[in-house]
Amino acid sequence: MGTLGRSMVGKDVDKLIELLNKALADEWLAYYQYWIGAKVAKGPMRGAVTVELEEHATEELGHALMLVERILQLGGDPLLTPQAWYDMTNCGYEAPEDPYVEALLEQNIKGEQCAIEVYRKLVEFTKDKDPVTYEMALQIMTDEIMHEEDLQALEEDIQLMRERK
Ligand code: FE
Ligand code: FE
Ligand code: MG
Questions:
Q1: How far does residue 144's CA lie from ligand 1's centre (Å)?
Q2: pTM of the predicted protein model
Q3: What is the 3 CA–ligand 2 centroid distance (Å)?
Q4: I need a labelling partner for 151 at 20 to 30 A (CA). Which of 4, 51, 66, 76 fits?
Q5: CA–centroid distance, residue 164 to ligand 2 (Å)
Q6: What is 38-94 written as a DSSP string?
């Protein structure tokens, strides 16, 4: 833990660490939801959908790394068990029980919309208080906004293909 780095954040540091751990839980669940979704996907444009889901899985894992590093910098304890992901999550986990591409896209779009909201709140919480976490939350939120857009574009393409038949 960096003592000065931690004290810069002020009195809300414990609350901030909790919010970061909750986001960490979301990222791991999102990672697996994308990763396993990419394996089971079936239906039109399966190849394009799979590539996008795999990319997003990798990016969610990158977000988890950023969060853990920041939690440690702040002197916090990162979540240590998968059980804690379920206990702490904001956005939950939706099993891809229906492997049809549009069902997967819909589940993951919901997840991204929840993630955008989580990081919007973190941006709000750290604004003018903790520039380091603020910058990180803003960067992750920007990725989540791109994720939502990528998935909605695929959904649109699948719909267009169906209409043009
Ligand atoms: Fe993420
Ligand atoms: Fe995402
Ligand atoms: Mg993408």
A1: 6
A2: 0.95
A3: 32
A4: 66
A5: 30
A6: HHH-BSTTHHHHHHHHHHHHHHHHHHHHHHHHHHHHTT-----SHHHHHHH-SS---
* Radius of gyration of the chain measured on its C-alpha atoms: 17
Q: What domain range is 140 assigned to?
A: 16-164
Is residue 60 included in any domain, yes or no? yes
pLDDT digits (tens, 9 = 90+) for 97-146: 999 999 999 999 999 999 999 999 999 999 999 999 999 999 999 999 99
Question: Could you read off the pLDDT of 29-61 as tens digits, one per residue?
Answer: 999 999 999 999 999 999 999 999 999 999 999
Is residue 58 a part of any domain in this protein?
Answer: yes
| Lookup: tokens for 84 | 């804690």
Token code pair at residue 47 = 């190849």
2 pLDDT more than 90: no
